[in-house]
Amino acid sequence: MLSFPALAQGNATAAARGISGCSDRKAKFEVKPSTGKSPAQPEQGKALVYFVEEDINTNVVTHTSRADIDRKSIGATDGSSWFYFSVDPGVHHLCAATHFGMSSNATAVVHFTAEPGGTYYFEMKNLSWPGDGVYDVSLFPLDSDEGKFLTTSYQLVASRQKK
């Protein structure tokens, strides 16, 4: 059974840093298109998580959006794109953050309970309009049909943390 009792969104960055999903916001990633494809099934005894970003203002400004889980940076997207990762069963705290420059950012968080063999889709919508000084994102679970649709519509990316 999947549990989503704590959905959060918006520009509550200061509060989100204290929530157990977010890591150091200084982590930066290099993001590139990937030619790989998603696995057919989760690894034995694990759950599979898809992180999808829908950027509704892709032509406004270049940015990278980071995903953290349980206070560890796990990967990043660049515009409307996605990646996946495995997690152990249990409760996990997912954090999505988009940074524009040194001080402008938006963060959203959610927690969920992963079951062995489960597949979970989460969408981060980047609702920011930096030209207007508006920085906002939302993060929420997706139905598996919608998740599969978005992962075929957007670019799979690979990211690595810059040191």
Question: What can you tell me about this protein's structure?
Answer:
There is one protein chain. A hairpin with a 3-residue loop joins strand 6 and strand 7 (104-114). Mean pLDDT is 81; it is low at 1-16. The strands form two sheets. A six-stranded mixed sheet has the order 1-10-5-2-8-9, covered by helices on one side. It has a four-stranded antiparallel sheet with strand order 4-3-6-7, with no helix packed on it. It has a single domain (13-34, 45-161), classed as Domain of unknown function DUF5300 (Immunoglobulin-like), CATH 2.60.40. With 163 residues, it is mostly beta strands. The protein has helices spanning 13-17, 144-153, and strands spanning 29-33, 47-55, 64-69, 72-77, 81-87, 90-100, 104-114, 119-126, 137-142, 155-161. The relative contact order is 0.29. The chain is globular, with a radius of gyration of 15 Å. The protein is 9% helix and 47% strand. The protein has two helices and ten strands; from the N terminus they run H-E-E-E-E-E-E-E-E-E-H-E.
Index terms:
mainly beta, Immunoglobulin-like, 2 helices, globular
Class of secondary structure makeup: mainly beta
Biggest sheet details: 6 strands, mixed
Shape: globular
Side by side, the strands of the main sheet go 1-10-5-2-8-9
Q: N- to C-terminal separation?
A: 38 Å
Radius of gyration: 15 Å
Q: What portion of residues belong to β-strands?
A: over 45%
Q: In the residues, how many domains can be counted?
A: 1
CATH H-level superfamily title:
Domain of unknown function DUF5300
